[in-house]
Amino acid sequence: MHLGRPPRCVVLAGAGLYHGRGMANESANHHRNIWAPWRTDYIDSLSSQEEDKGCFICRARDGENEAAELILWRGTRCLVMLNRYPYTGGHVLICPNEHIGEFGDLDNATLTEMMQMVRDAQAVLRRAVKAQGFNIGCNIGRCAGAGLPEHLHIHVVPRWPGDTNFMDVIGGIRVVPISLAELHESISRAAEELGLPCRQPEG
Hints:
Mean pLDDT is 78; it is low at 5-28 and 199-203. Helix 3 crosses helix 5 (180-193). The chain has two domains: 1-35, no CATH class; 39-193, HIT family, subunit A (2-Layer Sandwich), CATH 3.30.428.10. The protein has five helices and eight strands; from the N terminus they run βββααβββαββαα. The longest helix is centred in the middle third of the chain and has 22 residues, at 108-129. The protein is α+β, with helices and mostly antiparallel strands.
């Protein structure tokens, strides 16, 4: 009996991807897979955060070690941090300091600073990781994909020709593995060079 060729899989191993031989994605019913087992840490953390009534953004905001908390720079009302579970190298989060989950609950000054930080994040990522494009957006509510719906945050995801986008996460993606520590160092340095405040504000 002819079973046909197996579906194509993409497996992350070490510093790159290994593509299994098999059928190309010739129809909407066939999907390529990517194995990213480290993201189970993120999934598990969601339930533990709910149990502990904790928030990783608030913990980072109140932490004493900027590098360990992945804080890149701070404003008066908001902060910028690396996503610990990124879709691409350099994926950052723009977060209000207040634990608020809806845009409608933010004051105008915070909304303005968030958008200024989105603008600045693009400039920093162009300088630090040579980003040539961006996906910018946010998920409001758990049903819309928010992992932490109680604390609003805007995703800024750097892009390059030939990489992936959010839709491809379902159908098959190319992961660019890069150290968070190296990213934090290079992005923080670029932020400093552009004159952004990279230390915790007083008060």
